[in-house]
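To: structure desk
From: M.T.
Subject: fold request, one chain
Message: Could you run this one when you get a chance? Sequence is below, nothing fancy, just the single chain.
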Amino acid sequence: MTYKCAIVNVPFGGSKGGIAFDPRRYSPEQLERITRRYTAELIRKNFIGPGVNVPAPDLGTGPREMAWIADTYDALHPGGIDNFACVTGKPVTQGGIRGREDATGRGVVLGLARGLDFVEDFPGTGLTRGLPGKEVAIQGFGNVGFHTADILVRRGAKVVAIGEWDGTVVVRSGRGISIPDLLEWRSEHGTIKGFPDAEEELPPEAILEVECDVLVPAAIENVIHGGTAPLVRAKLVAEAANGPTTPEGDRILGERGIPVIPDVYLNAGGVVVSYFEWARNLSHMRFGLLEKRLEIANTNALLNAAETLSGRRLSPEMRQNLVTQSDEKELVVSGLEEKMTRAYDEIREARVRLPECGTLRNAAYVVALEKIRLSYEELGIFP
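Reply: Done. Structure tokens follow.
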């Protein structure tokens, strides 16, 4: 996490924590008691706080659990005006921020899109520039996999295969898999198996062998290893999950000429927007509040001047389109795109500057380590 935050220029360190149990076997009331007790233990050990350590959702958790954490922390720290900055990924009504739920998936798409702006960096793959028309296979249809698939399709890519723990569905004709239809099917049946639009149904592990432009592992760790890496038929691997490729798997992909956009960069969208939420909680104001009316007034003044100089009137619809200001989610998405784009460019620059890096993964770690080293050098040691 420290490296990931350094790569995307987020001023956080990093840690991981959780409870090893299956939440599907417990009632909501039991889950609430477990979550609150876990929070109490974090507080007891000083492992949580707006200026100490700020958790966020991961496997098996979401906005509901983050709200329980925030409420528990608030109850045990009466009078703390920044208490709700102790955790991110909260419901919007409880200090959360629009855009956090799909942030990791959106970050994956933004990072992949930036990588495909420079296909000359992937010689021999046959990849063409840009996302539109790319055939994508995705392993995992949870939060990250779903939002990655949904946003990819909206940006013109074609999702041809999705794999889950119980099977893989393939649709190559037309526009590929309809993500809303697959989501509805799984919601109704608890599985993607039997999806009526599927042209092929394959075993779960077969998702790695689907012929495609981009393979997106968005499920669990260590799925591309010495046994599976030789079977990958994608032109590019985009790591949306944490640690989906083992060192041996990475080496084999490299030998086969299949480039990898690494997880330590690509799935950083979640922590970027968590940082935005944390900053918003500390400021106690939504993004865009102070400047919104001023920007509207300035835009109207500019349009009035244009009408005066041209002698022509804008239609009310055109004026409304030009004057309408961005809402908070649009600002969050814009900020996330800036973070992901700039981070990729820094990784690419490091790879060019230091050819011995070889891969984007190595270049990403070089970027992170250089920033961390510089921070220690400039701050010094005290006492």
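Reply (cont.): The radius of gyration is 23 Å. Let me know if you need anything else for the meeting.
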